[in-house]
Amino acid sequence: MTEGAGDLVIRVTAMPTDLNPYGGVFGGWLMCQLALGASSLVTRRTGLKAVVVGATDFAFPGVMQVGDELNVYAEVMRTGRTSITVRTRGFGRARASEDQVEVANGTFTFVTLGADDKPLPAASVMAET
Question: What DSSP element (H or E) covers 83?
Answer without folding.
Answer: strand 83-93
